[in-house]
Amino acid sequence: MAALVHASVLPNSLERMRHERFILTRLMVGAVALGLAPAYLAWRGTLGTLEALIMIAAALPLIAVVTLSRSGRLDIAHCISASALALFIAALAGMTGGAGSPLLLWLAAVPTEAMFFGSRPYVARASAIAAIALGSVVILQQLGAFAAPAPWTAGMMPSFVMIAILYAMAVAVGFLHRRDDELREHRASDARAQLLLDNVGDLVTWHDAGGSVLFANAAAKALAGADPQDLRGRGLFERVHIADRPLFLKALSDAAHGGGVSTACFRTLFVPRSGDTDGRTPVSLWLEMRAHRIEDAGARDGVAVVCVMRDITARQALEEERARGHAEALKASDVKGQFLATVSHELRTPLNAIIGFSEMLSNDAQAWLDAEKRQEYAKIIHGSGHHLLDVVNTLLDISKIESGAMTIEQEPIDIAAVAQDCCALMALRAEASQVSLERVLGPDLPSVLGDRRALKQVMINLLSNAVKFTPVNGRVVLAVVRDGDMIDLSVADTGIGIAAADLPKLGDPFFQAGGSYDRNYEGTGLGLSVVRGLVGLHGGKLTIESAPGVGTRVAVRLPVGGVAASSLPVKITTFARAPRRGLESKEPVRLTA
């Protein structure tokens, strides 16, 4: 039997069963008919026209089997088989009374039998063949083509009726058997599909034209935090992140009413069921969805959408990391550009002074210069050299801090004495700028465990910035007070202040608020970066409060016991507001440098 089935239908189990059933029944009918033919010929002798047609009808099922086995066309083979049955019934009717023969009722078996093997087109073709056979019998009856019924046929009528009843029973049993086979095959196919869907790992959902979920597989537990039945209706939509719901609905709409295929990436947000995690922390996953339109007569509007959703959270994290890396690379490029622009300006200006004035001093043509001028030029060269050294030292410090090579040596430090030394160093610059420099020291200041050089550099950088950006007759205050196990060190000024848009960038290397090539204030923009790094090495916290036209207050909070005693995160905090003038100490000691 398997050898007679055409290769084109082997992958389809239901179609293969239909072909096997057709071949088996037609072989049986043909074999029985041809097996009885010799006995009938021996009994009847010479065959009449109608009897010859019956013999031809008996052989046609075998021809139908050969046609089906060679071509795989069940529709053509069934037409041949239906024509054979109709011819057999018409010939018998001609022998038993023509148009008045009760055997013509057998023609109803032609379309009935078609239901057993085919669908509506098969039944329609079989009905047409039966109608043609009936019409042919009626026309031939009117033309007088049929003779009187043979005497022997009168006794055969009960046999013919019994055969018709048995045939009808066989068709009914076969139809029920076919239905049971198809139901079993459908159940097996559904079970295989369900097993595949439940183990595929991707969330597969079936939606109607309105977007409601009709089916979901077992991956709903992992990707949506719910059982599959909980996603039906609007269950999946309610677990989509509220910001991504329009994108989700648009993808479904585009698939259902547009090109038939659409894609979207969205987030699901849900609280896992108890037993999966702690049951309280919401989980957010990125899903990539591919929606496909299919025609479904059972769905509303005859349209359905099948969606396959895959977890791309890890891939999304990699893409975000790549985007951050790209942004950081762009930022590094910008920093490099700022470095070249700023450092070239800071280096070229003193270098030009050193080269120019040194040439004037070494040129014999400038012998007219008196001792006072030579001393003035030498001071300019000396000051420019120190400025270059400060720039280079600052660059080296920030490089060490950012690379992690900077280390500090902690020792007990008299923070009040360090503050006094720094104010003394900055006094001349403040006086030259006509800025009042004050220091406020709280009572009972303890020794601080830290690096003396680093803390001194922090104070000098903060004071230098405050003096530089404070106009004439302005005021700069260095305050050091104790707050429990912490030291609050702050530098407040009445300077130009900082715009709110620039506050988040403070502390970035080479950044200068309002900086440009024609800026009014010299500097590399590294001072606050160095301060931030040194404060971080001490386990401290840096806070900046500023408002344009009011002034700036930079506060450093350091642990008395050094890095080991620090519980503060190393960070910089900025506030777009006017700096506070009050101090936490109740009885500060105010000194003026």
Automatic annotation (TrEMBL):
A Pfam family that the UniProt record links to this protein: HisKA
Keywords: Kinase, Membrane, Phosphoprotein, Transferase, Transmembrane, Transmembrane helix, Two-component regulatory system
EC number: 2.7.13.3
Every PAS domain range: 189-259
Catalytic activity: ATP + protein L-histidine = ADP + protein N-phospho-L-histidine
UniProt keyword Transmembrane present: yes
Top-level taxon in the UniProt lineage: Bacteria
Name of the protein: histidine kinase
UniProt enzyme class: transferase
PROSITE patterns: HIS_KIN, PAS
Transmembrane segments: 23-43, 49-69, 129-150, 156-177
Domain Histidine kinase: 342-562
Gene3D superfamilies, per database record: 1.10.287.130, Histidine kinase-like ATPase, C-terminal domain, PAS domain
